[in-house]
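Appendix B. Extra example for self-study. Work through it before the problem class; the solution is given directly after the inputs so you can check yourself.
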Amino acid sequence: MNDAANTERWIHRLNTVQLVLAGIIIMAPTVWMVLSSFKPSFEVTAYPPTLVFTPTLENYAELTRTTPFLSYALNSLIVTVGSTALGLLFGIPAAFAVSWTRITWPAILTLAARMAPGTLFLLPWYVMFRQIGMIGSYTALILSHAVITLPIVIWVLLPSFDVIPRSVFEAAQVDGCSFTRILWRIAMPLVASGVAVSAILAFVFSWNYFLFALVLSNGDTKTLIAAAFNFIGEGSTQWGALMAAATLIALPPLVLAALVQRWLVSGLTLGAVKG
Amino acid sequence: MASISIRNLTKRYGNFTVIPDLNLEIADHEFVVFVGPSGCGKSTLLRIIAGLEPISGGDLYIGDKRVNGVQAAHRDIAMVFQDYALYPHMRVYDNMSFALELRGTPKAEIDARVKRAAALLHIEPYLDRKPKELSGGQRQRVAMGRAIVRNPKAFLFDEPLSNLDAKLRGQVRAEIKALSQQLKTTMVFVTHDQIEAMTMADRIVVLQSGTIQQYDTPETVYERPANQFVAGFIGSPAMNFFAVEWHDDCAILSQGGTAVPVDGEIASSLRRAGNALLGIRPEHFTVATNAADGIAIEVKLVEPLGSDTLIHFDLAGVSAIARIDPSLRPKVGDRLALRPQSSKTHLFDATNGQVLR
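Solution. Structure tokens for the complete assembly:
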């Protein structure tokens, strides 16, 4: 009995150590980045890194003074919100249709598109958008980012639709609902938490995706993440400003990721069926 | 209110035929129960009537209208599902009013109809609750209420009592029966429980492998089963079957040669057939006081039910059951003389199971 209790205590300690180690490995770069953004520029690249310093906002001031940071942020917001909305607009009915018909190949196709390297699409898109004069437009960026958001919406929502008892939809059919009305009045309220999670995930992935924006945007439509890439200059990188930019870029996804947790548990379908 | 007419209906899933060729007429205001074992096609048939399954061949009429290609939404029928299928995000009131709202019924009328149905089903106190806040029996009532408010052409019930406990099942069964008499609407009820079928139906459809074995009143199905399948399915415990033959102007059990008393109609049928299956319901045995007046058996198992006692015994190589007077207090190992009530025995063809009359 004592041995068993001892073993359990040791396993618990080991688990804690593992979690702490994993936490440090994951969080260290982020903490370093955030701390560096508040350091005077000469301390950012100091070696060994300084842990005690006088915090300053000079990097943030430098960032806004030397770059159109707010314009880039607005571009990111337009592209991300647009592509997320597009993903939801087509992804919700698509996921419902896949769940309803049990025809899964369209969903697998979108997943394959998401898993394929972005460069696969980039060249044909570049040629296509250039031909129709859309390079540098928000539309081109939003459409290209829909490749990121659409599969996320479909695959996050599919299990949410799947767990709703089919008889609930059939009852709605018998009550007089069309397919669209079933989706809107019956299914949507039941998968609301799934929609929120998929919207947030789509937003985060689209916000963080830089490859398409790097090639398909221009000076007026460049997104934050693509612009940040340009901060790394040859021999004249402003590391302090770069850290400040990286911190600001990471902020919206981090806040949204924290919000996701609140939506993950939903008991809406409880009571729909027996028991 | 409407009749339902099914003509030469077939249903296939790929190469698998569930319903080969089915004809059925359900009269207006009639309460018809589809009964049969799992996989017999009864739920499929109900779902076809509802418009939830397409038809592979044949015709379906609700009233005078052919509804083969008509969507469920436009058939004006109401359905109560096995798992109730209430809308989890809506209050009971909204669950019941939803279909009326879709049809553009005025709010005042919706309110009146919902409250009338709620009163009928004793669910007024729960109108503001969500389904998850209700017990199984209450959810069942809400599901019925949702159907009733619509005043549809026909009600369809898909095994609605199977999730209730035994006591509640009996209560709701009686309530549905009473409702059917009040509402005077065509009702089709699917069950695998033959007691539900017997107690509720005006007529019973006994199904096996997608074909109708018998379509008649509960009394007729019980008293004059069309074949061995129906005889064995309707009645609990099930009918006993013994191989018999005609020998020296008398019916005898094929195994053991014991003489069995049969009435004139059975005797002449058996004389013609030579050999057949004799069906005797457990309740149609009596215990003879004189051993010479009955068939000698040894009691293998006793099941006292209070009102009756079931005894299990082996006869002519068959494990059989008799329902006897509990005051006899039989014990395992007792030797009794059982006498079948000759006027209530049944004879079936030994090869195809059809009744011999």
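Self-check: Chain B has two domains: 4-225, 237-348. If your reasoning did not lead you there, revisit section 3.
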